[in-house]
Specification:
Helices cover about 30% and strands about 20% of the residues. The protein has about 200 residues and is an alpha+beta fold. A five-stranded antiparallel beta sheet has the order 5-6-7-8-9. It has a three-stranded antiparallel beta sheet with strand order 1-2-10. A two-stranded antiparallel sheet has the order 3-4. The relative contact order is 0.20.
Length: about 200
């Protein structure tokens, strides 16, 4: 989501095949172009990694221009015989904008700066919209709280979160994390956001 001058992207760590959880601490968020661009995926992991590589190539070709890179990737994704079989969706963002990309040719910028993909997308979107309307939390803290709520509801979402941000670092003057009586937020890499140790 985008709020003020900050854009934040969060992803959980759960990987499933059917009803079986195979991995709990996958990293679905990447920083690209020397940390200036964020990208996250939902769908088949191998397909998403292929698309990340293609998107990063486009970023280099277009000198970090997010919109042009997104359009060019989507054109290639839709028209290439191999790429159009890939089953994934991407969210990409820089300090100015956030876009949803799909193999159907979609390049969509949300009106309110909030977008989600994957099985938990409706829950995460609803939670984020409510938090934006009723709190003064930063973009980073909104996506954290929205994902925690989603993990409580969606069986395909867990609490092993990765959060990345671009843009200004904001402090919460009102409705702070402490005022909401929630644990302090921490960007995680391979551990539970609540600080519990990861199991084997």
């Amino acid at each position: 989501m985008k709020r003020g001058d900050q854009i934040a992207l969060a992803g959980d760590g759960q990987v499933t095949i059917g009803d079986v959880v195979l991995k709990q601490s996958a990293r679905k968020i990447r920083t690209l172009y020397d940390g200036q661009v964020l990208a996250g995926f939902a769908g088949a992991v191998a397909d998403a990694l292929t698309l990340f590589a293609k998107f990063e190539t486009q970023l280099v070709s277009w000198d970090g221009n997010l919109r042009r890179s997104a359009v060019e990737l989507t054109k290639e994704w839709r028209s290439d015989r191999f790429l159009r079989r890939l089953e994934a969706q991407l969210i990409v963002a820089d300090a100015e904008s956030i876009l949803l990309l799909s193999g159907e040719g979609d390049v969509i910028e949300p009106d309110d700066g909030i977008v989600a993909i994957g099985a938990g997308a409706p829950y995460a979107t609803a939670a984020a919209k409510a938090l934006v309307r009723h709190t003064g939390l930063s973009a980073r803290d909104v996506v954290l709280r929205a994902m925690e709520i989603t993990a409580e509801i969606c069986i395909f979402t867990n609490e092993y979160l990765t959060i990345e941000t671009v843009g200004a670092v904001e402090s919460d003057d009102v409705d702070s994390v402490d005022e909401l009586t929630l644990e302090p937020s921490v960007t995680t890499q391979g551990r539970d956001i609540t600080g519990k140790e990861e199991g084997a």
